[in-house]
Structure formats: structure tokens, C-alpha cells
Design goal:
The complex is a heterodimer of chains A (about 100) and B (about 475). Chain A has three helices and two strands; from the N terminus they run H-H-E-E-H. Chain A has about 100 residues and is mainly alpha-helical.
Chain lengths: ~100, ~475
């Protein structure tokens, strides 16, 4: 395989990754449950990270500002923004099990 | 045009828009049975479902959110956590319950209990239904109270609080009786759109007036430094506690469960929940920022009512020019829409549970008794709502604390195939007893952990213990075909 072919292969793989992230229908059926379960487990982890328990020992005035927000508030809002985005992916890959749909 | 006339005109236009929708819903109803009245014949598509879930989830309590954000400062970002926890916890319920609800024609949450534990579990179904009815009764009471407060603000007390409560109770009652869930969902759709428009106006105003986030944070750090500090351990426990409490209890709102049952397809439901997550984050963030923007504007006096923050802020905004007056009115209408959309859905759910979950068997044809129950219930709750002295946020907490005690019966039983009705019943009774004891003693939380969660721990522990004890008894046939796979 020439270097050019390898580069093309890498390029195509990258395109596939982008296509998968934009359009969940592109994911192979057998991969969907694994990704879905992993992402579903990530949701409570993000909720846990949003609470600044890991800064408990610090002085309460040691915060910095990120985009004008105290860093612990910015982290919390970042986690809460990720959650609906992950949710979109999870619900988009959920299979339809009801008799009504079949 | 004078401000009062402008407000009254807006309220009138808003209510007039709802009339043709209600008439159309009434005409679209082909059958006079429970499935059609309470689930719109399982016909709700993506757009209606998305907007009705959104409009129903956000209620009059949103008034209290800005107030809390103003009072406690940046730590109230935990409200966005509560909303994120709610959207997350739908994964616990929807994928398993939705196919069962379609296959076995569930109409009320009690139908799930009846199916899961069999007809022998009548006592459990009645207790679960009673707890749900009580918590939703409280919720409806809070919505009517919020409607009265908003009308007072919009009309500067030209329409008194009592008239506002009774007027809105009458309007909601009318379209609930006439069109059932179809009318409720269609009006919710309009109300959801008004909410989105109003909250976008509010967001734009915040961006325009706050002078940028950096300036706002600096001012808050100077005026109320405690509002911006990293929270202490008790606040962090409260934060976790709120996410647990809200996340676990809101998914078993009967009106939410009934929307899960009423979807036209799984895909429509899944897409609605995905879209709802995004819009819910947007709404919660807007209300948080509204409270934070108010910190430099108003002094935190001891007698300051938290629920009054948003109305006072809107007054301040409306005074600047005509466009802002219109936008402020749009926000008030959006809040009114949020209140009405929740109140109508709650009323419908409560009546469906009174009618079908408290009795052992019910006929599901004809709606004569349903109408009578609706009128009596609304009259009773409207009378109670005339009492004004309780904050909206406390009402919401009380409702969630009560509601979460049904979590094992509705959600844990969905996943734990072997648990029978006796352990669930024992757990529920113990949870309610612990909660009642804490409320009587005036204990709202212990080390930041909410009373409802403490009671839930007792509830689940006793359920586990009773299950273990029953397991030691002679073996029973566990191959019940009704249990979810």
C-alpha cells in the first residue's frame, strides 16, 4: 500500500467519524448498544463532576474567572451543556421496541 | 395606551387564541372513552409531544428559580443540575416502560402497578395513587397561586389576586373538560411556543443590560462576596441532594408518564425527549442569569420576597421604552403559559387517577363521572389557593419529597424483576412515615440531605429487608410472564 493510499484511508476514516458524529444512523447496528450504554453511564459522571466536591479543601476565595464566570460555575455549566448534547445522540440511536411502531 | 389596558389586552388575546384550539380538539375527538380523553388516542407526534413535555415540565415554580438565584447567588447553578438530572433520568424509565405501556394499553400510572404486581396488589396501587394525587394536588395549588400572583403583577392589582386565581381555574377547567389531553397538548404547544419566545426576549435583555458576564461577576463579588465563593460541604451535599431528588421524582410525574403513553411512536417520543433536554437547559440558564442580574440591582432586605424578584425586574425593564414594555409583557405571558400548561395537565392526570386507580375495576367508556370529579376537585383546590402565605419553591420541594417515595414502586420495580408487592408496600409505608415525622418535627434536611431523600433511603432499605426475609420463606413460582424482560 502506497503512502498516498494510507493517507487516503486515514482521510476516509476521519470523514466516517465526522459522519457518525453528525448522523448517528451511520453507526453499525452492533456498535449502537455499546456506545449508548457508555454514553448513558457518562451522564451521571458528568452530574457528579459538576459539583465542586474536589475543591473542598481549598480556600473558598481561590476561584478564577473563565469567560467572566467563577471557574466552578463554568465547569458546572459546561457539564450541564454536554448532558443534553449526549442525550440527543443516545435518543437518536435508541431502537423502536413498541408494537405500535412495528 | 395605558399600561393596565395594554396588559389586559394581551391577556385577552392570549386566552382568545386558546378558544379555537380547544374547539378543534373537541371536534377531533371521535370516541368518548378514557384512552381518547386522557391519552388523545395515543396520537401525539413529535412537535406536539416535545412542546407539551417542555411546557408541562416548566411551571409556575420558575418564578421561584430567579428568586433563589438572586438570594443564594452562583451556588444556585444547581438548578441547571436539577434540570440536567431530570433529562438524564428519563433513560431509567422510558426505554422499558414505553413498550409495555403500548402493549398493555396503560392509561394511568396505576395501570403499570396493576400489570406489574397483579390485581392482588390493590392496596399498593391505591396507596401509590393516593401519594401521587396528594403531590399533584399540591402542585395544582402552587400553579393557581402563581397564576394569581402573575395577574396581580400584570394588571398592577387592578385584577385582585383572588379573581386571578378563580378566573384561571375556570379557563383551565373549561378546556380540560371539553377536549381532554388533545386540547391540553395542543394548547400546550401554543403555550410552549409563547414560552420560548418570551424566554428568548428575557435572554436578549439580560445580555444587553448585564454589561457582560465579567462585569456582572465583579460587581457581585464586590457587593455580596459570599454569593460567588466556592460552596462549603453542606451546600455541596444539598446540590447532590437536589439533583437526586428532582431527577428521580420528576420522571414519575403522572402527567409525564401519561405523555410517554400517549406518544404516536417511540421515535416521536425519543426525539421529543432529546429536543426537550436542549430547550430545558436554555430555559433554566436564562432564569439563573435573571436572578444573578438582579443581585446588583436590588438590596437583599430581610423582608424581601424571593418570588417577587422576576416581577420587579420586569417592571424595571418595562419602564425603559415601548419595545421593552412589549418584551416584558411577553415574558409574563410566557410564565402564565407555563403555569396554565402545567395546571391543565396536572388536573387531567389527577382526575384520571381518582377515576381509574382508586377503584379495583373501572369502566373505561363514557366520561360523565370524570367531568363531575374534575369540577369538584378544581373548586376545592381553587379555594385553597386563595391562601397566599407560602413560597413557591417550598411547595415544589414538598411535592418532590412526597413523589419520590413512589420511585421504588414505579421505577425500581421496572428493573428489579423479582421484587413482589409486599416489600414495595412496606418500603412505601416506611418512607411516608419517616417523611411525615420529619415534616412534623420541622426537619427539612440533615447535613444538607433533603428529608425526602432520607425517607427514600429508609423506604428502599426496608423494601430490600422485607424482600430478603420473604426469600427465606418457602419458594414461590417466580416465572411470572408479566414481569418485564
Amino acid at each position: 500500500m502506497t503512502l498516498n493510499n494510507i493517507n487516503n484511508r486515514v482521510y476516509i476514516d476521519k470523514l466516517n467519524l465526522i459522519a457518525i458524529s453528525v448522523c448517528p444512523e451511520q453507526i453499525p447496528i452492533e456498535m449502537k448498544p455499546i456506545i449508548r450504554v457508555t454514553l448513558t453511564c457518562l451522564l451521571p459522571i458528568l452530574l457528579a463532576i459538576s459539583v465542586p466536591w474536589y475543591r473542598e479543601g481549598e480556600d473558598s476565595n481561590t476561584y478564577r474567572f473563565i469567560d467572566g464566570l467563577p471557574d466552578w460555575v463554568a465547569v458546572a455549566l459546561f457539564c450541564y451543556t454536554l448532558i443534553p448534547l449526549i442525550n440527543i445522540f443516545i435518543w437518536a440511536t435508541c431502537s423502536s421496541d413498541s408494537e405500535q411502531d412495528q | 395606551m395605558p399600561a393596565i389596558a395594554f396588559s389586559l389586552l394581551n391577556i385577552a388575546v392570549y386566552l382568545l387564541i386558546l378558544i379555537p384550539i380547544c374547539i378543534k380538539a373537541r371536534r377531533s375527538s371521535l370516541q368518548r372513552n378514557a384512552t381518547d380523553h386522557y391519552l388523545a388516542n395515543r396520537s401525539l407526534g413529535f412537535m406536539v409531544l416535545f412542546l407539551t413535555i417542555y411546557a408541562t415540565t416548566f411551571s409556575g415554580n420558575i418564578l421561584g428559580v430567579s428568586g433563589q438565584a438572586y438570594r443564594t447567588g452562583f451556588t444556585w447553578v444547581m438548578f441547571a443540575g436539577l434540570v440536567a438530572a431530570i433529562t438524564t433520568s428519563f433513560h431509567l424509565v422510558v426505554p422499558k416502560l414505553r413498550p409495555l405501556s403500548v402493549k398493555h394499553h396503560f392509561i394511568t400510572p396505576g395501570d403499570w402497578i396493576r400489570y406489574r404486581f397483579g390485581s392482588d396488589a390493590h392496596a399498593l396501587r391505591v396507596l401509590v395513587a393516593t401519594v401521587l394525587i396528594l403531590s399533584l394536588g399540591n402542585f395544582l395549588f402552587a400553579q393557581l397561586k402563581a397564576a394569581g400572583e402573575i395577574i396581580v403583577v400584570m394588571t398592577r392589582e387592578t385584577i385582585p389576586y383572588e379573581l386571578g386565581v378563580l378566573g384561571f381555574a375556570f379557563v383551565i377547567l373549561t378546556y380540560d373538560i371539553l377536549g381532554g389531553l388533545r386540547a391540553v397538548a395542543w394548547t400546550d404547544m401554543i403555550q410552549g411556543l409563547i414560552m420560548l419566545a418570551g424566554f428568548t426576549c428575557l435572554g436578549l435583555w439580560i445580555i444587553e443590560t448585564s454589561g457582560g458576564m465579567a462585569q456582572l461577576s465583579t460587581t457581585i463579588a464586590r457587593q455580596r462576596p459570599e454569593s460567588i465563593q466556592i460552596p462549603g460541604p453542606t451546600i455541596m451535599i444539598q446540590w447532590f441532594s437536589l439533583m437526586f431528588l428532582g431527577g428521580l421524582s420528576v420522571t414519575i410525574y403522572p402527567q409525564t408518564l401519561q405523555r410517554i403513553f400517549a406518544a404516536s411512536s417511540d421515535k416521536a417520543l425519543y426525539h421529543s425527549l432529546a429536543a426537550m433536554g436542549v430547550v430545558a437547559l436554555f430555559t433554566s440558564t436564562i432564569f439563573l442569569f435573571t436572578g444573578w442580574v438582579a443581585i446588583p440591582l436590588f438590596n437583599l432586605d430581610p423582608g424581601f420576597q424571593a418570588d417577587q424578584v422576576l416581577p420587579r425586574l420586569l417592571e424595571h425593564w418595562a419602564a425603559s421604552n415601548t419595545w421593552n414594555r412589549f418584551s416584558a409583557m411577553m415574558v409574563l405571558l410566557a410564565i402564565l403559559a407555563a403555569i396554565m400548561s402545567t395546571a391543565d395537565s396536572v388536573l387531567l392526570s389527577v382526575v384520571s387517577m381518582i377515576r381509574h386507580d382508586l377503584l379495583k375495576n373501572t369502566k373505561r367508556e363514557g366520561l360523565r363521572y370524570d367531568t363531575t370529579i374534575t369540577i369538584i376537585l378544581m373548586a376545592l383546590i381553587s379555594m385553597l389557593a386563595l391562601y397566599r402565605d407560602i413560597t413557591l419553591w417550598r411547595l415544589m420541594e414538598l411535592k418532590l419529597e412526597l413523589l419520590i417515595q413512589c420511585f421504588p414502586a414505579v421505577v425500581i420495580a421496572l428493573h428489579w424483576r423479582k421484587v413482589s408487592s409486599a416489600p414495595v408496600m412496606a418500603g412505601l409505608v416506611s418512607g411516608l412515615t419517616i417523611l411525615a415525622a420529619m415534616l412534623v418535627m420541622g426537619v427539612k434536611q440533615i447535613y444538607g440531605v433533603n428529608a425526602g431523600l432520607i425517607a427514600l433511603v429508609g423506604n428502599v432499605m426496608l423494601m430490600g429487608c422485607v424482600h430478603f426475609i420473604l426469600k427465606q420463606a418457602p419458594p414461590e413460582n417466580n416465572n411470572d410472564p408479566r414481569l418485564p424482560k
